[in-house]
Amino acid sequence: MEQHEEDHRGTVSLAAGDGQQQQEDPLADALHALSLNITTFIQAELQSTTNVLELLEKMNLRIADDYNDFGDFASGLRVFVERLRLKNDGFHKYIKQIDEIDQEVTELEALVSALDKCTGSLEAKIRAAYNEHHIG
Question: Which of 2, 3, 8, 74 could be stapled to 15 by a disulfide with Cβ–Cβ 3.0 to 4.6 Å?
Answer without folding.
Answer: 3
